[in-house]
Amino acid sequence: MSKTYTDKDHALILGGVFQAARLTFELARYGRTDETALNASINSLFQTRPENVAAVFGGVTGVQLGLRHFITQLESPADRNPELTQYSIRLLQLGRKLFGDEKRLNALGQDLEDFQSRADAFGFENNLRYTQLAKIYQDHISTISPRIMVQGEPEQLNNPDVAARIRCALLAGVRAAHLWYQCDGKRWHLLTRQKRLLEAAHELLEEET
Question: What is the pLDDT along the chain (209 residues), one digit of tens a residue?
């Protein structure tokens, strides 16, 4: 990828983070979410040699949900969801930890590569796909502090299928957060460059309409 990143690149990445947060929230509360957005987020896990940032997410379409919620969270205090804010902050923290842990990052990358090889060879039903990716999250991410404490309805959190999809969403969110640091993003940019990032997010969504 390019060594120079634009505000639109950074807005796309934050769209990936906020999308994972939104997917997690909806699954934990309602047991359902936008499956197209979930699959786009999961597919980002396997874009290891993208030409650019947009290619990681399959273009703007892949993170439309996240871009919309990024804008809402920062522009509309009355509509702000504190759980989304909490999840997004935790994902960025985990992404930073992963960015500095080459051994863990390499092991995670190997497991994802092995998973993709098996999926290509045998084909997986969605439930098995979610379950195996959830285990990768548990093996490599859930042991990192600070752990993400997901809030929701016990009926959903105790449902193995829902729990697996939540972990898939979180794994994709950590991937986006790691990309944020790879592309020279800083946590304080959410404050110091907030206006620029919001303008970029609006422009990206307008380009899709």
Answer: 667 899 999 999 999 999 999 999 999 999 999 999 999 999 999 998 899 999 999 999 999 999 999 999 999 888 899 999 999 999 999 999 999 899 999 999 999 999 988 877 676 677 888 999 999 999 999 989 888 999 999 999 999 999 999 999 999 999 999 999 999 998 889 889 999 999 999 999 999 87
pTM above 0.90, yes or no: yes
What's the CA gap between 148 and 161, in Å, rounded? 19
CA atoms within 13 Å, Cβ hemisphere of 55: 9
Cβ–Cβ contacts within 10 Å for residue 201, how many?
A: 27
- Contact present, 94 and 182 (Cβ < 8 Å): no
Contacts of residue 56, defined as CB under 8 A and 6 or more positions apart, other chains included, come to 12, 16, 44, 47, 50, 176, 179
Q: Pick from 22, 36, 7: which is nearest to 68 by CA? A: 22
DSSP 158: T
Domains, the chain, ranges and CATH?
7-208 (1.10.3890.10)
- Report yes or no: 148 and 90 within 8 Å, Cβ to Cβ: yes
Q: Please say whether the beta carbons of 58 and 43 come within 8 A.
A: yes
Q: Which residues contact 116 (CB under 8 A, 6 or more apart)?
A: 46
Q: Which two tokens stand for residue 186?
A: 């800083």
CB contact at 8 A, 175 and 44: yes
145 half-sphere exposure, CB direction, 13 A CA radius = 0
